[in-house]
Amino acid sequence: MVDLLLANGTVIDGAGAPGYRASIAVTGDTLRIITGDTSAIDAGRTIDATDYVICPGFIDMHSHSDLMLLTEPAHEAKIRQGVTTEALGMDGLSYAPTTPRGLEQMLVYLAAVNGAPPDVRWSSVADFLALFDGNAACNVLHFVPHAAIRVAAMGWSSRLPTDAELAQMQELTRQGMRDGAFGFTTGLTYAPGAYSDTDELAAIASAAAAEGGFYCTHARYTLGDRLLDPFREALEIGRRSGAPVHISHYHSPVAGLGPQMTGLVDAARNAGQDVTFDQYPYPAASTILHSLLPYWVHAGGPQALLARIANPSVRAMMVRAVEPQWGGQTLDNYIFAHIASDKNKEWEGRSLEELARHRGGRMVDAVCDLLLEEDLQVAFVARTGNLENIREIATHPAQMIGTDAILTGGRPNPRTYGTYPYVLAQFVRGEGLFPLEEAIRKMTQAPAQRLGLTDRGTIRNGAKADLVLLNPQQVNTPATFEDPAQYPIGIDYVLVNGTPVIDNGQHTGATPGRALRSR
Q1: Contact by Cβ (8 Å): 405, 416
Q2: Structure-derived torsion over alpha carbons of residues 484, 426, 457, 68, reported in degrees to the nearest 10
Q3: For residue 38, is pLDDT > 70?
Q4: Which residue among 271, 272, 332, 335 is least enclosed by CB atoms within 10 Å?
């Protein structure tokens, strides 16, 4: 007897091969493929999959659900898209391993991304991962985040590490890897990661590589020509450290840069370097409002930052510093996505320029006053992308999908709710940018291979039953920039470790997710 039979669907196995007619039998948390007649199979439940594609659950290579999965474990924005596994610790901005003091500081610094923390605390990767087992709708995996280990080793100092401090960061990385992390991540346009140099990062990446990990980076967009030089540094770190390189949210708003970006990856891969990247499909970024402040303002940590921005003389030094992070744009394109308090909630969906005009003063004062009022809990969406670059980069064989979703606020980037159905509806069905089988490979097997997951990401006998049933003619997302918090259509069943979490379009309340470990 099998627990569940998904009968007579079109199986797209994640490897890029053409779909074929088959049924999937689920027993416990594993699957078996059945071709031909299933009438003799004794199943606890049968779902007619005739109108569905059955594919592996999607692996989100870039998420920011580190705490939201613990405080809101149903995780509907993501599980309804078919996401069954999420990579945490991205952009170097996460919470383990670190010290108790460092953890409290990171919780304040990143509250705009992850909201209020759970009641429990932790220090190690092992303790952090243990919180997720059986307590979340989807699986998670974790990376050692640069910010957390730098704060643990040297606080929020805006300088390079001493030899002893660098050795401590390397040891924390090794410990994190041995606890089950998959690699080392950086966010080099955020403090404290921005205070580092290439030597520091290569040394830490080498510690991760020695334990079987890879280097995953939000590149240093302020470097050199601010176009390709940031990514050249990422490749250089990989070469020096011996770590494979994965570039996060690979994109540029600069028109025509897409072919040069894919060419840079091709040149490295042709030279024998192991390079991949992820990408979301919407022409907009999202991040925390205090990232617009100069790096020196962040030195000393969040409390020091708040004290500085309350000082009029400090603000006078920043008058011309609060400006768009991406060239050729104005702060009218920067739209508030999340503001924590009811006092200022009305500004969600409106721009920074609108706020400054309303308050009748300088932009620096509007930004600093809001950050003080909200204790840093403000995030925004920047409408700064370039769809032609996105399309160019999306077709590259080393590309895989990541949402980069921020789950806080009432006006998040639509990628939070719509990334996977958007790719399937717009890039596959609408534009024919690549076949459905290739899109699913980018969402499943490609990230599984990058991560070294051997039991997920592909439908094969004995694999874990992380599965999605989607209607290829109906799958779509109603999420827009104006109304982003809308669930997709055409994704009616999602199984995690053999348990239905989305069942005929409804969330079951199940939390069968597990913390996946690299060893």
Answers
A1: yes
A2: -10
A3: yes
A4: 272
Q: How many residues does the chain have?
A: 519
pLDDT at position 321: 83
List the alpha helices (DSSP H) in 427-475: 436-443, 445-451
Distance of CA 381 to the CA centre of its chain: 15
Question: What is the topology classification, in CATH, of domain 58-285+384-454?
Answer: TIM Barrel (3.20.20)
CB 348 within 8 A of CB 411: yes
The torsion defined by the Cα of 454, 456, 459 and 462, in degrees rounded to 10, comes to 70
What does DSSP say about strands 46-48 and 4-11: parallel, antiparallel, or unpaired? parallel
What is the residue extent of each domain of the chain?
A: 58-285+384-454, 292-382
Q: How many CA atoms lie within 13 A of 369 on its CB side?
A: 15
Contact (CB, 8 A) for 250 and 393: yes
In degrees and rounded to multiples of 5, residue 60 shows phi and psi of -80, 110
Q: So what's the pLDDT on residue 325? A: 66
The Cα–Cα gap between 221 and 187 comes to 10
Q: Tens digit of pLDDT for each residue in 395-416?
A: 999 999 999 999 999 999 999 9
> What is the pLDDT averaged over residues 4-27?
98
pLDDT per position as a tens digit, 215-270? 999 999 999 999 999 999 999 999 999 999 999 999 999 999 999 999 999 999 99
CB atoms within 10 A of CB 334: 24
Taking a C-beta distance cutoff of 8 angstroms, is the pair 438, 2 a contact? no
For the record, the structure tokens of 277 come out as 């990247």
- The one-letter amino acid code at 486 reads Q
Task: Specify the DSSP element, H or E, that contains 34.
Answer: strand 30-34
- Provide the CB-side half-sphere exposure for 28 (13 A, CA): 4
Per-residue pLDDT at 129 exceeds 90: yes
Q: What is the pLDDT of residue 327?
A: 56
For residue 192, what are the contacts with CB-CB under 8 A and spacing of at least 6? 147, 150, 151, 156, 157, 158, 298
Query: Looking up tokens 């901005």, which residue turns up?
Result: 93
Tokens of 414: 């639509």
DSSP 424: I
Strands 491-496 and 467-470: antiparallel
Beta strand extents in 250-305 (DSSP E only): 275-279, 285-288
Across 7-16, 35-44, 84-93, 153-162, least confident range: 35-44
**In the block, residue with structure tokens 């074929």:** 20
Distance CA 382, CA 327 (A): 12
Question: Is the confidence at residue 201, as pLDDT, over 80?
Answer: yes
Q: For 239-250, how does the pLDDT look when each residue is reduced to its tens digit (9 = 90+)? A: 999 999 999 999
- pLDDT tens track for 477-503: 999 999 999 999 999 999 999 999 999
Mean pLDDT of the chain: 97
Reference 281, options 110, 178, 415; nearest CA is 415
Please give the structure tokens belonging to residue 221: 């967009």
* Coil vs helix vs strand at 269: helix
- Distance CA(444)–CA(423), nearest Å, equals 13
Determine the distance from the C-alpha atom of residue 79 to the mean position of all C-alpha atoms in its chain, rounded to a whole number: 14
